[in-house]
């Protein structure tokens, strides 16, 4: 096994990892970014084909490089992936693609980052990944009739994957709503199951959305007001696993107009058929599970990093009980905007400064 020493390892070359890398490079900190996909930006490219960002392009650029699109346009997921790839090339960030990390362990006063055929000893490790890594589906999914096609939202790309017959989308958040409308518009009887998460009262593509919602809600409320430094932000911070926010692009009237039927919560399977909370049974050809994700951090073999609930214990991404370990990209890491491009960039800058301070202390 090839083994080397690098002062800082960043795991993940998404917007968070590249942003940390940008700041470390400017301050002369030796580092490498490891990305499991074959290309930077593939995490975005692999999402469903019709996906567009909820934030206008003027908020989708990282530090030092504006997003190359009209400021009030809403980029596609492929455009976002291409932008991240161009960003890494423009700033000559040391990204290694096609490298999957399978273990993070302690090594002396530092850490060992390892995978198939490689190992890197590091003083600092930045886990620049969201806590939405492993698809989550209910246990009763295995009892569905084998003829029913099952997809998680992570696997869904377009309606060509749907079997003949009716479609049930389980989970009525933003992903579920958009996928359900797309299925209905392509000729499938479509049911959308799950609680109503609420919605914003206007279209984000409207004048109100572009010039009021974006600067006031996204930039001020989500980014400045709802942070861990404010009473309102601490109250809004989830105490358990993250739950979906309100519908942003696809509101209830668009769901209804698109031909989607709202139904009760999906609670089980009997005789291979879906059972709803109200006792209704559905015959479907496809179930799309928009039921969220597990954090997917089982490869981090550092018990001190996690609390009793299995989530990282940190302050703004700095691990509380394991010096040298950092997280960025987590849901509400510091603010409601932490999973948005502009919020992730701010969090990454904070983490980069923490890494730099630690490096300076060790060098002194």
Backbone structural class? alpha/beta
**Which band does the percent of strand residues land in?**
15-25%
What characteristic shape results from the CA principal axes?
A: globular
Q: What is the fourth-level CATH superfamily of the largest domain?
A: FAD/NAD(P)-binding domain
Please work out how many helical segments DSSP would assign: 8
How many structural units, i.e. domains? 2
Helix content: 25-40%
Q: Count the strands? A: 21
- The side-by-side strand order for the widest beta sheet comes to 4-3-2-8-21
CATH structural architecture of the largest domain: 3-Layer(bba) Sandwich
First and last CA, distance: 33 Å
Write a structural description.
This protein is an alpha/beta fold and 364 residues long. It folds into two domains: 2-133 and 295-363, FAD/NAD(P)-binding domain, CATH 3.50.50.60; 136-199 and 246-289, 3-Layer(bba) Sandwich (FAD/NAD(P)-binding domain). It is 26% helix and 22% strand. The strands form six sheets. The chain has a five-stranded parallel beta sheet with strand order 4-3-2-8-21, with helices on one face. The two termini are 33 Å apart. The relative contact order is 0.18.
What brief labels describe this structure?
364 residues; FAD/NAD(P)-binding domain; 2 domains; five-stranded parallel beta sheet; globular
Can you lay out the helices and strands and say which pair or pack?
Blueprint: E1 2-5, E2 8-11, H1 15-26, E3 31-35, H2 42-45, H3 77-90, E4 95-97, E5 101-107, E6 110-115, E7 118-122, E8 124-127, E9 134-135, E10 149-152, E11 167-170, H4 174-185, E12 190-193, H5 207-225, H6 231-236, H7 252-257, E13 260-263, E14 266-270, E15 273-276, E16 281-282, E17 286-289, E18 293-294, E19 314-315, E20 318-319, E21 325-327, H8 341-363
Parallel strand pairs: 1-7, 2-3, 2-8, 3-4, 8-21, 10-17, 11-12, 11-17, 12-13
Antiparallel strand pairs: 5-6, 6-7, 9-18, 14-15, 15-16, 19-20
Helix pairs in contact: 1-8
């Amino acid at each position: 096994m090839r083994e080397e020493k690098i002062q800082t390892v960043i795991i993940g070359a998404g917007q968070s990892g590249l942003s940390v890398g940008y700041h470390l490079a400017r301050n002369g900190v030796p580092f490498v970014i490891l990305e499991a996909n074959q290309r930077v930006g593939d995490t975005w490219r692999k999402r469903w084909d019709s996906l567009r960002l909820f934030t206008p392009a003027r908020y989708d650029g990282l530090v030092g490089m504006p997003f190359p699109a009209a400021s009030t346009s809403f980029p596609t997921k492929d455009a976002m992936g291409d932008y991240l790839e161009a960003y890494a090339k423009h700033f000559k960030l040391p990204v290694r693609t096609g490298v999957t990390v399978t273990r993070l362990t302690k090594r002396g006063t530092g850490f060992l980052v390892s995978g198939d055929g490689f190992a890197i000893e590091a003083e600092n490790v930045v886990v620049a990944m969201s806590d939405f890594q492993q698809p989550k589906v209910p246990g009763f999914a295995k009892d569905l009739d084998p003829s029913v096609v099952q997809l998680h939202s992570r696997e869904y790309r377009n309606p060509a994957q749907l079997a003949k017959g009716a479609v049930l989308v389980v989970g009525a958040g933003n992903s579920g709503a958009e996928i359900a409308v797309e299925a209905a518009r392509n000729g499938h009887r479509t049911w959308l199951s799950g609680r109503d998460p609420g919605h914003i009262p206007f279209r984000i593509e409207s004048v109100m959305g572009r010039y009021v919602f974006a600067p006031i809600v996204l930039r001020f409320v989500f980014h400045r007001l709802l942070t861990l430094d404010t009473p309102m932000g601490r109250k809004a911070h989830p105490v358990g696993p993250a739950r979906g926010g309100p519908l942003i692009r696809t509101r209830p009237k668009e769901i209804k107009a698109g031909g989607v039927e709202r139904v009760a919560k999906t609670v089980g399977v009997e005789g291979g058929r879906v059972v709803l909370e109200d006792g209704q049974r559905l015959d479907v050809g496809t179930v799309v599970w928009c039921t969220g994700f597990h954090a997917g951090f089982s490869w981090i073999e550092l018990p001190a990093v996690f609390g009793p609930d299995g989530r990282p214990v940190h302050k703004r991404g700095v691990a509380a009980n394991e010096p040298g370990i950092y997280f960025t990209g987590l849901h509400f890491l510091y603010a409601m905007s932490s999973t948005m491009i502009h919020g992730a960039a701010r969090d990454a800058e904070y983490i980069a400064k923490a890494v730099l301070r630690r490096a300076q202390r060790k060098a002194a």
